[in-house]
Design brief:
two-stranded antiparallel ribbon, binds benzoyl coenzyme A
């Protein structure tokens, strides 16, 4: 039944909405101006919902990639050829665990809990980098991951140090410094095998390069004209350089490094283009990429199962840490 009171309530609500949307428009204008000005947006600042969601998606996927990325290399810690190589690999894998933690913390500042992010990974709703769904078959794969995978990661991540969201940008500065060490150790391990190794070791390096080249250049994501998130993320300064531009920069730098190393990149169409001042390259198999990110790569199931197992088996550690933290804060509560 319609009443006059309802009419008044409707009017009040309408007025409140109008005030709210005028307020929101002002906030939106201020946010846009800060983005245009190149200012950092901080966690407590007003931001559009879509900006927040995009950041949580990208930062949490980045964190998941670091944590899942520990698995293919961790597989070789117990089989590293020397004590020195083992110590280097241990440090690298631990760094990646650390990167995951900074990134989860940066994403948490946006109001999503770590448990929610982990649940999204374990249920298959959140993605992690396609590259970690390929197997590490030989010791040379560890070197090639350092050279190509960490090399691609640096190319992608250096521009993120200038990302518009402050906590993500700041986390990336340290991540990039550590990634540089990761790239160098991989290249140096390969150089040692190529220059001082046996013929069998050189064959092993070439085989690893052949298997990792195409997945590495897919890491930058789909071509710009098939990348649904790019245009908006570029406008917001979350992404500073497009997927295709980063891929091209990576290829241009890597071809020269491959020459020094003495390996061949498995693309007969790789050729310097004088006019473009870039290397041309062959057709990327995007069906393979989309198949891998849909969960059907060679190791997707194995990787997720390993993460879920580690999470379940670590439950007692989390419980003990929480109980300890609660005990530490008890005297503070009593004093208050
Ligand atoms: N793998 O619109 P697009 C590392 C998804 S870890 C899987 O271009 P966006 C390292 C994309 O998420 C390297 N999925 O997306 C660690 C989107 O799907 P949703 C990780 C991918 O976000 C240990 C859809 O495809 N680095 O370096 O604008 C050891 C459409 O794509 C991939 C980062 O995470 C992929 N490769 O751009 C060693 C860096 N590419 O989410 C090394 C931060 C695309 O809509 N992330 N997709 O369902 C980024 O810069 C961007 O998120 C991307 C993708 C360039 C990856």
């Amino acid at each position: 039944m319609y009443t006059q009171a309802m009419d008044t309530m409707g009017k009040d609500e309408g007025a409140a909405k109008a005030v709210r949307s005028a307020e929101e428009m002002k906030l939106q204008e201020r946010f846009d101006a800060r983005i245009d000005n190149g200012d950092f947006i901080e966690a407590k600042d007003w931001m559009p919902d879509h900006y927040r969601k995009t950041l949580v998606r990208q930062i949490s996927q980045h964190a998941h990639s670091e944590i899942v990325g520990m698995l293919p290399e961790g597989n070789w810690i117990s089989r590293a050829p020397t004590l020195k190589r083992k110590a280097i690999l241990l440090a690298k894998v631990q760094d990646e665990g650390g990167h995951g933690l900074y990134l989860y913390s940066a994403a948490e500042t946006l109001g999503t809990s770590r448990d929610q992010m982990i649940e999204a990974l374990h249920s298959g709703r959140a993605k992690y980098s396609s590259i970690f769904n390929y197997p590490t078959l030989t010791w040379a794969d560890v070197g090639v991951i350092g050279w190509l995978v960490d090399g691609a990661a640096i190319m992608n991540q250096v521009p993120i140090c200038r990302c518009s969201f402050g906590p993500y940008a700041r986390a990336m500065i340290r991540v990039c410094r550590e990634e540089s060490f990761h790239q160098r150790q991989g290249y140096e391990a390969l150089l040692t095998m190529m220059e001082k190794g046996t013929e069998a070791q050189r064959v092993m390096v070439q085989d690893a390069v052949n298997r990792w080249w195409w997945p590495s250049i897919m890491m930058f994501g789909p071509p710009d004209d098939q990348s649904p998130n790019s245009a908006q993320s570029m406008r917001w300064g979350i992404k500073r350089v497009s997927n295709d531009e980063l891929r091209q920069k990576f290829i241009d730098a890597t071809v020269e490094q491959a020459k020094l190393l003495g390996v061949t990149l498995p693309d007969p169409e790789l050729k310097w283009n004088e006019e473009r001042q870039h290397y041309d390259f062959g057709k990327i198999d995007w069906d393979e990429f989309f198949n891998v990110i849909a969960g059907n790569g060679p190791c997707n199931r194995e990787r997720l199962a390993a993460r879920v197992k580690a999470w379940d088996e670590g439950a007692w550690v989390r419980e003990a840490a929480m109980a300890y933290a609660a005990k530490q804060t008890e005297p503070m509560k009593e004093a208050a």
